[in-house]
């Protein structure tokens, strides 16, 4: 699943990297859903879909998936898109 998401983003020219803490948070949230592997897919999609929709139209070419991003994807996306330093650095 992680490799699949990396390939999805790479199709847009965006490299992504998952921290160990982010993967742990994804697993924790999925366990709360009690739906097995479907929970992992669901959490991964809920977390990354907004980025997959918005980032291709920006100059961002690298996305670090952190536990904070997994916990608050919308606020992290908003922060990234409004931070000129982030846009020019990545």
CATH class membership: Mainly Alpha
Query: What is the CATH-assigned architecture?
Result: Orthogonal Bundle
Low-confidence stretches: none
Percentage of residues in strands: 5-15%
What Rg, in angstroms, do the CA atoms define? 13 Å
- Topology-level CATH name: Helicase, Ruva Protein, domain 3
Average pLDDT, all residues = 93
Strands ordered across the widest β-sheet? 1-2
SS elements, strand count: 2
Number of domains: 1
The main β sheet shows up as:
2 strands, parallel
What is the tally of helical segments? Answer: 6
User: Could you tell me how far the N terminus lies from the C terminus, measured between alpha carbons in angstroms?
Assistant: 24 Å
Percent range of helical residues: 55-70%
Q: Name the structural class.
A: mainly alpha
Helices and strands, in order, run as: HEHHEHHH
Q: Looking at the structure, what is the overall shape?
A: globular
